[in-house]
Amino acid sequence: MDEKEFSLKDTLFSGQCFRVSENNGVYKVICGVGDNTRTISVRQDETDILRRDPFWSFFFDLDTDYSAMKQEFSSVSPIMKEACEYAPGIRILNQNPWEALCSFVVSQNNNIKRIMTIIETMCKTFGFVTSCGEYCFPTCDTLAGASDEKLRSTGLGFRAPYIINTAAAVAEGKIDFDYLKTAPVEEAAKVLMNVKGIGPKVADCALLFGCHRLDCFPVDVWMKRVMKTYFNGAGPDIFKRNAGVAQQYLFHWARTSGELK
DNA sequence: GTCCAGGTTTTTA
DNA sequence: TAAAAACATGGA
After folding, report:
1. A201 CA, C5 C1': separation in Å?
2. What residues pair up with A129 in beta bridges, in sequence order?
3. CA–C1' gap, A98 and C9, in angstroms
4. Which of these, A15, A41, A30, A203, lies nearest to A122 by C-alpha position?
5. Residue pLDDT, tens place only, A1-21
6. A124-173 residue pLDDT tens
7. List A113, A201, A224, A228, catalytic entry
8. 3-class SS at A2?
9. Residue A116, CB, less than 7 Å from strand C?
10. How distant is C1' of C1 from CA of A190, in Å?
11. Which of A208, A204, A234 has its CA nearest to residue A79?
12. Structure pTM?
């Protein structure tokens, strides 16, 4: 697959997932929770094999037409067009919703490198080695029953109780991902924000990256800068129904192109 | 030593 | 209601 159509590098390293690495052009992903954990190692020039595999094709969202979306975004403004052309191969992953939610609770007031380190430590501390040969992302039941002290030992700091709260809400069924995938977005966000430790940003990330709600538009410190500097403080409505996808192009461009400091 | 990171909660005015 | 401080930690 052409890198402009689908880029492993830009999709995996644009801050939407965290159990990823790259070595000599080989991109490795570990995804999923507990016994359902999967892993793959693949080069950019081998991405055609992903198309033929139902699981990975879904995970990387390869059946969705992004060119139409990019065209629509590009007409909004020259900067948006630049962001689309900067990394046109970004797609929004279909991640396990619990993994995404938990990961973005870890992400608050944190940087991507450290988020990755903490999540790996959590997997080694609370996960187990599955048939795929890797430590799994811990289940919500495991983390709901974990002690604050042991969680802090993974580097979570003040986020430890937030993780416990979130895990408990999922384990008890207060957070139902099937509901989050279909409910009106405002309702879905409200359910998430009932948990102490989940605010609007984490809720939007969980919905966008874990429930494929492409209208969710997470605003972190980078997006705040972008919208203020280049869009006169406008909101997500200028990008219409797939604003979350536009957000991901802008976020990645802002963070890595060097245009915005 | 200070500042910052894909924020949120708590405290203060 | 709104602004500021507190929260852990490691890298720049």
Report:
1. 20
2. A135
3. 24
4. A30
5. 999 999 999 999 999 999 999
6. 999 999 999 999 999 999 999 999 999 999 999 999 999 999 999 999 99
7. A201
8. coil
9. no
10. 21
11. A234
12. 0.98
